[in-house]
Amino acid sequence: MAANVTRRDALSLGLAGVAAACGLSLAACGSSSSSSPSDSADSSEKSSYKVAMVISGPKNDGGWGQGHYESLKRAIENHPKWEMLEPKENTASADAASAAQSYVDQDVDLIIAAGNEFVSAWGDVVAEAAESNPNVHFLMTNTDPSTDLADYETLDKVETVQVNLKQTGALAGVVAGLMSNTGQIGFIGGMRLPTTLTKYAAYLAAAQKVNPKIEGHYNFDAGFTDASFGTNITDQWIASNNVDVMWGDASAVDNGARQALEEAGVDTHFDIAQPIDSVGPDNPSVITSTVTDWMFGQAMDQIESGSFGSGAVIEANMDNGGVYLGSYSDKVSQEVQDKVKEYSEQIKADSFLTDDEVDAVKNTL
After folding, report:
1. Do 247 and 262 form a contact (C-beta atoms < 8 A)?
2. Do residues 15 and 68 both lie within one domain?
3. Same-domain check for residues 227 and 336
4. Which of 23, 110, 174, 182 minimizes the number of CB atoms within 10 Å of its CB?
């Protein structure tokens, strides 16, 4: 297996574009709301708050950026004290620190990094803000504090969000296993990231659990921006392997895969989208979506109560609504939907797939 690469590493190699929908492994990581002793008591007494976000791509990219943006909009709707400032879109790594500092200078209560590619650039900003702007808090998604934040001087006003990738992959897998008529399913990843490998392993293991005849096809070198790559590889798999269901972790490349599925026939070739609900006339091959909510509302609640910080991890999972399947297209029969619901309850209870079953697939990659 290739050496582990973080999403930040991937983007520093020039593959920024529209970032992949990926998270870090959740081994031994759970939701936490531990108090930070340095949190100001004034946090719970404020009448209004501001939140802002920095994104590497556009906020309406149909994938990574839009997933974060829509999650934040949902959180704002349920938190009347909060105002969302306009996100800083298409932010290059070289501009990440100044983007964060501009929000610190405005005393924004919560500054969100949409992905761990900004983490290294924000270290000094976080340290300085802890002294000069103590009511400013930082939240980084797809970030493991034990590794990504190991060099930070302080985590008093920092938390991270991680996604339960086993659940996300398993949800896509049961849909793929039930919907495939050929027994051949595909997956495209932007890079060989640990998170991408976990997603694919859970996807294939779950599909094979509901249909032992399933075979998986994958590519982990697609990048994140070239839609034509997705079209070409999917065309190849359809022609040579009769692949009829796809799921992806490569942002714009996934759009190309959908084009190939549409050309092959949307009544027989299907796509499972992520990380937003993409079912609709604009995406006729999409039969459902694995949706991620980044749990920004939980972070807002913690700031209001004065309990935010200490490098705590917020986990997005099926229990708290951070991971779920979106709407279905009319191509998914009620019988299949009922079976997916049954399997989903098992996935939520962690009784459907074992870690060993996921690892057994991952060890072959």
Report:
1. no
2. yes
3. yes
4. 182
Q: Is 216 helix (H, G, I), strand (E, B) or coil?
A: strand
**CATH of residue 228:** 3.40.50.2300
84 and 172, same domain (yes or no)? no
Residue by residue, what is the 3-state secondary structure of 143-168? CCCCCCCCCCCCCCCEEEEEECHHHH
Contact in structure between 95 and 61 (CB atoms under 8 Å): no
Q: Are 194 and 338 found together in one domain?
A: yes
Model confidence at 279, in pLDDT bands (50, 70, 90)?
very high
Residue keyed to tokens 């997005």: 316
Is there a single domain that holds both residue 94 and residue 156?
A: yes
153-174 b/e (C-beta count within 10 Å ≥ 16 → b): ebbbbbbbbbbbbbbbbbbbbb
Residue 35 lies in a domain: no
Amino acid at 87: P
Closest by CA position to 157, among listed 168, 167, 149: 149
Query: What are 53's strand-pairing partners?
Result: 112
Calpha distance 154→130 (Å, rounded): 8
Q: H-type helices in the chain, by residue range?
A: 7-10, 64-77, 96-105, 119-132, 165-179, 194-210, 227-241, 252-264, 296-305, 334-348, 355-362
Alpha-carbon distance of 189 to 253, in angstroms, equals 9
Question: Residue 7 pLDDT more than 90?
Answer: no
Write down the residue that tokens 């556009």 correspond to: 58
d(CA 238, CA 185): 10
351 shares a domain with 213: yes
Structure tokens of 208?
């094979």
pLDDT tens digits, one per residue of 330-359: 999 999 999 999 999 999 999 999 999 999
CB atoms within 10 A of CB 354: 12
Domain that holds residue 104: 7-27+46-165+293-316
Q: Bridge partners of 324?
A: 291
Number of compact structural domains in the chain = 2
Q: Quick one: pLDDT at residue 44?
A: 53
Q: Are residues 275 and 187 in the same domain?
A: yes
What pTM did the predictor assign?
0.83
